[in-house]
Amino acid sequence: MAIDSQQPVSADTPDSTDAAAEFTTVELADGPAGARTKRFEGRFVVQGREFGKREVEVTKVYQGRSGKFVVQRQRFDWAEMASRANFQGNWKNWLSMLGGGGFGVDLEAEPTWGDYEVEVVDTLDDLRGLLSAKLHRRVVAVVEQPRIEYLDI
Hints:
This protein has four helices and six strands.
């Protein structure tokens, strides 16, 4: 399975030392076709995408105010995408269904279909069993080190 890892760059400034400023209200889709919503106070940590022969899986990791981790997985089959696509006259439509990719398509857009699963774990060690090794290393790097290190040079 191919992995496409993405990590946003925080817009921290030297004056924004208050870690609580990073936390916002997060709403995540959960269940078949995202029929339910889970809400909590937290911050986005990392995101990874895995593209396989049969499905695409988008994994997002958040950290709550209590320090617990929230993992949201979104899975959708390539067959499902093909049945919902409108390829008539525009072969580029598939890009918007994957959530970007250029050609004037919104790169931040996420597909709004597929099945979602939200899990909460207490520690980084518990998180290891839910994530790929590469994605787990990135979570540890973000959580255990400051996002921006100011050099006094």
